[in-house]
């Protein structure tokens, strides 16, 4: 489809939520309280279900949780029957500005930033309706700080979407990851990252990105990945000293650094520098695993993207190559779980369809992590990683009313998180199975 035709379709599709602006605005404390009733609710910390489950919401906060809660006069009671209430899901590694395409690099060249921004708003809605009420957008791939506009529109209630921590463009070296490699160099095709080749440049880029509205910082720490004699090989991009300077500057500005990092010695340098997360983490040495456990640095495994690439490869040779990456990754993930490496849940959604990334929970469970631990990794560790600890990720009084209801028991069958029947974010209902029209739903 021509880019102009696709832009027109996206533009008119994006207009759909605009008729609901008044409805998607955050609830005020003056609105009637809501009582949610269901067969169960999830105690994330203990890894248990409580039956039955009730939650009292006043404004945009949880006021009470238990087998029964006060029903204030005039409260709206929503009976969700056999469903299980749980906190809204967290995806700690998304790409709102990417969509499935044969060549990720070309979509960022072919499509304008306004077109990609419209795409991002639609995909933010899809993620929210799938139960993801908070996300970390790990790079706009050439769209610069456009994600600030999406985040701010969500925060103001203009469009539906998750709470967002955003990074803007990822930071990389010249000739490194996302530097438009393989194109005619005479055309000077721009890369999808922001360049920084020295410590001073790293600090300058971090300051610029925070000035432009970034909540967090993403750095590419490894380059092109290859399997050599059964081992993953990739060059590191920054030294431990350079990363340490970046982490120190981010901390000075009140934020954190997460790195794209697949193997060693890059992962060790990142752990020594004190980054907040090592994303993808296909291979970690025993020394790095111990250091991550000591410092509580989260691995964000993103298993789903590797499975997707293996099952959607363009030819048999590519499928074999991608399957080798996935098999290596899952084997190493089992070792990391056994070693006690702290985990958060992130899918790398974007190159595969938004709204389907709850598959990550299923894969983490399938390859060695108990369901209760996967849920804690997502909801408790994810909240800490996104700097929203004590605000999201648990059903507790005072926390934001980011609540979903799923069909089934996620502790007995983690795939229940792929069957989200009810979504509330910030006290506003976006998806419901009862007979009332959700306040934030699309027509």
Please describe the topology of this protein.
Elements: H1 3-14, H2 21-24, E1 34-38, E2 40-43, E3 48-50, E4 53-58, E5 61-66, E6 76-79, E7 84-87, E8 89-94, H3 104-110, H4 113-129, E9 132-137, H5 146-155, E10 163-166, E11 171-172, E12 194-195, H6 199-211, E13 217-220, E14 226-228, E15 231-233, H7 240-252, E16 257-261, H8 266-273, E17 277-280, H9 286-295, E18 298-300, H10 303-311, H11 316-338, H12 359-366, H13 371-385, E19 403-406, E20 420-425, E21 428-431
Parallel strand pairs: 1-6, 2-7, 8-9, 9-10, 11-12, 13-16, 16-17, 17-18
Antiparallel strand pairs: 1-4, 2-3, 4-5, 7-19, 14-15, 19-20, 20-21
Give a description of the structure.
- Helices cover 34% and strands 20% of the residues.
- Helix 8 (266-273) links the parallel strand 16 (257-261) and strand 17 (277-280).
- The chain has two domains: 31-88 and 393-431, Urease, subunit C, domain 1 (Roll), CATH 2.30.40.10; 89-385, Metal-dependent hydrolases (TIM Barrel, Alpha-Beta Barrel).
- A six-stranded mixed β-sheet has the order 3-2-7-19-20-21, with no helix packed on it.
- The longest helix is centred in the C-terminal third of the chain and has 23 residues, at 316-338.
- The protein has 443 residues and is α/β, with parallel strands linked by helices.
- The protein has helices at 3-14, 21-24, 104-110, 113-129, 146-155, 199-211, 240-252, 266-273, 286-295, 303-311, 316-338, 359-366, 371-385, and strands at 34-38, 40-43, 48-50, 53-58, 61-66, 76-79, 84-87, 89-94, 132-137, 163-166, 171-172, 194-195, 217-220, 226-228, 231-233, 257-261, 277-280, 298-300, 403-406, 420-425, 428-431.
- It is globular and about 70 Å long.
- The protein contains 13 helices and 21 strands.
